[in-house]
Amino acid sequence: MDERLLIGIVHLNVRHGAVAENRASLLTRTEEAAERGARIIVAPELAVSGYSFEGMDEIAPYTEELTGETVTALSRIARRFGVCVCAGLAEHDRKTGIFYNSAVVLGPDGRLVARHRKHVAERRWSCPGQPSPASLFETPWGKVGVLICADSYYGLLPRSMALQGADLLLVCANWPPTGLDPREIWRARVLENGTGLVAANRTGLDRMMDCRTAPSFALAPDGAVLLDETAEDTRTFFVEYPLEGHRFPSRLREEMAAARCPRDYNAIALDSSGLDDFPGMWGLPASGLIEIRCLVPSPGPTPLPGMGDPSWAGESGIPRVLVLPPGIHGVPLQEIIRQSREGRTAMVTETRSPSGSALPALVSEGRLTCLSPDKNSVMVDFSPARIALVRSESLRHPEAAVALSKQGCDIIVSQAGHLDDDTRLLLGVKSLERAAVAVATPEGATICEPPEGHERWHETMLREPGVCAAVVDTARTRKKRFLDRVDLEVLLRR
Predict the structure, then answer these.
(1) What is the pTM of this model?
(2) Among 84, 86, 149, 468, the one annotated catalytic
(3) Which domain CATH number covers 477?
(4) Which of 118, 406, 430, 480 is catalytic?
(5) Residues 6+ positions from 426 with CB-CB distance below 8 Å
(6) 64 counts as catalytic
(7) 118 assigned to active site
(8) What is the pLDDT of residue 306?
(9) Statement to judge: residues 357 and 220 lie in one domain
(10) What is the pLDDT of residues 296-353, one digit of tens each?
């Protein structure tokens, strides 16, 4: 029998500063969702106050304690219907006077069972949250984790919740439809972790944002889209979430957790905040332009052109790194080594171990650096870049990209067997960790560069024989920023 759990999403038209109106709409829609059989109900970020505030004094009248009117009213609904209710609000902590952008969860008995304080906080008025078990809660169907909007932008927060056993992530969002599409981020987090995800976004006009086409979204653990909806005014959406044996599916999450290699991730614990000279700390080569050229082979006995072909040449005067897909034979390795001594060419290719197995290798400055079977990555400085050669399976894990980038990596290169849309997405989100990512496969190639501001990463892609090329300025990849408010003990536990 096909088991399903009904989850309600309150896609709320939040009017800026209209607390009484917003609260009334939130409560009405939450109650309606419960009456229609939803067992878990999720509402947007800052569902009562609205979003855009200039400072602490301005938002102060719209903040609430956790014993305030909104939480008390939601508690009554949760208790009356025996449901879980999750909603975002501007929290005023009575003991300290601190303001937080928070999400609260009321359990079926009306008690507060979880409270998540947004880690990627609004700098003008809210204090960032810290890793806490309070961000997760148990249900009859399994453990659930709570995130708020941009918390999902960074891979380590969803990952840490999955490692703590969360099989479903609830996201209270206030994510406008401009710039980076949140659905790509949310899908990537599901594919990375094998958890399901339900995101309650908002609609309407805020002071500085038009959210009338902002999407609410839901995904099963395998990435199947369960809901993708927008509405220009308040709507209640319903998700029929799949269960297995009356529980949230957990197999994919457990498989992904088992495939991790925590010994590779120690560098995520490094603190790079406030550094004036990040390149100097890591002894990086002087920044500059470098061209990445991923060669996609042709079918037949001569998959790649000869060394004299323009495909190998690239931009005149710019150092280049050539990335070949796996399984290409007859590459003139000695000629590449000779050219690399001149300092203008590096190449990712394959060589053979003494036992005859294929080893990914990076040729640069007359040296051949192999990725031995006991390693998942190796870093080499070449011309204006620190380059990491990484096994493709390692790039599924967010910790790998963060650890490499924190050690000064400018470009992550890899070889893979295939390049489907989900693989491209997982590679693209790794560039959010401020390193370019380039992968060559027998069927295509992609190069993803870190974005500007809140935009999507820049992707250059090729799905036919030829050259996928992009020029990267390593001055940009060295403008690093990381989310360090993560549970390192969970992420690095072996």
Answers:
(1) 0.95
(2) 149
(3) 3.60.110.10
(4) 118
(5) 188, 191, 192, 395, 396
(6) no
(7) yes
(8) 64
(9) no
(10) 998 876 666 666 666 666 667 899 999 999 988 666 777 777 777 776 889 999 888 7
